Amino acid sequence: MSGIRVLEAGPRALLVELASGVDTEAFHAELLRRRAAGELPGVREIVPGARTVLLDGVEDRTLAGRLRTWTVPPLSRGAGEAVEIPVVYDGPDLADVAEAWGVAVDEVPRIHARTEFRVAFCGFAPGFGYLTGLPGHLSVPRRATPRTRVPAGALALAGPYTGVYPRPSPGGWQLIGRMPEPEALWDPDREPAALLGPGARVRFVAAGAGG
Amino acid sequence: MSGGLEVVRAGALTTVQDEGRSGWAHLGVPRAGALDGPARRLANRLVGNAPDAAVLETTLTGCAVRVTGARPVLAVVGGAGCRVTVDGRPVAWGAPVRVPVGAVLEAGPAVHGVRGYLAFAGGLVPEPVLGSRSADLLSGLGPPVLREGDVLPLGRPGGAPCTDTVPWPGAPAELVMPLHAGPRDDWFTDAALRTLTTAVYRVSERSNRIGLRTEGPALRRARESELPSEGMVLGAVQVPPDGMPVVFLNDHPTTGGYPVVGVVAEAALAGAAQAVPGTPVRFVRA
Q: What ipTM was assigned to the predicted interfaces of this complex?
């Protein structure tokens, strides 16, 4: 894999920087494979980001040198079952997104629902996944003025990402719909706690008309 | 469960804390846990608990609890220095005291330091969430912030309390933070990097469990582009657009979009937990 940089993040962590989001997902998948095979001892956390994977709680400092020499197979799309998320496409920013995309308003749900997404990384709140899959030309800016309260379940777009808010919070993403049962996203008493962990495949299914 | 406590005075911000939860950062779950780890461990040792037992962490104004179980409870108040009383009568700070059934143990307002730790023999045993009893203020996991009238369950006392006289570290008059450069120090000008390790910053009163915010000369960036979100470690010194360094503490977000100029070694963060607003902060090369 070309263009890999390994940066130190303090005495116990390494930040591996990749050339693209797809390379990052592939590298993350390779880390998980090697950890599952017992080939990655002494690493406490593996935290993917947009262009990086953070390895925290690293006991062996020689790992940095070895990471640079890894051969990483390309990401295999289509592995495993996709998580299906029922949503109602009735968000207040549908018209703004349609304008940014240069399509009619009712095209936005159609384009979004036929896209296959993948959880690139999580963050912001437990259970909040940054989903990639929309082509680059459908990136949208954040709202100029963030909302002080976005309801739980809001289906939102920003930059290249799609996400669903697991709980109410302030937010600057463009809201295009809602998930009627957002409590399914995050339940710490369930295993796994997060419906959308890094690497998961996701499809949105339009569930009924707006209301 | 062998007893309980009733919250008589909750204080400004009192939470249940243990070692925190690790292994969940990839799902956006902060580590949480007591900000002053050495104080938590020492408090537990003094009442015969395992070092990772859950304790109360107070913020500046202390708290008061009544023993509601059937037996007296061995307790200790440490961390931030404060007046300690049982039913209004002064008792030792930083040493174990026996609190009778029905009596109120009070940790007064901090006279130095910020975070007080109240450990009870048997430890606090609210339901763990993802393996920890710590309250996480960023994402709202774990037991809620204490309120008056809350009842907290206590576990069964186990080990023998430590009876030695032990030294408690004091609150720092100046916070010296050994800093490992990177991972994004190259996003800052050379002048900014010199400023960071030579200027005196001060602890901002906007500090909390998420981060120790500082005030001082703004750090100028060499790159103005937006940093794609990336994983953040405990002790990361993140620099938001105002240029004022924020040292990430236990409730920090697990990913973030502002560059991290350096990382403070974990051992130095207990001091950050006790530094009152206005305390001078020096970042020195680790």
A: 0.94
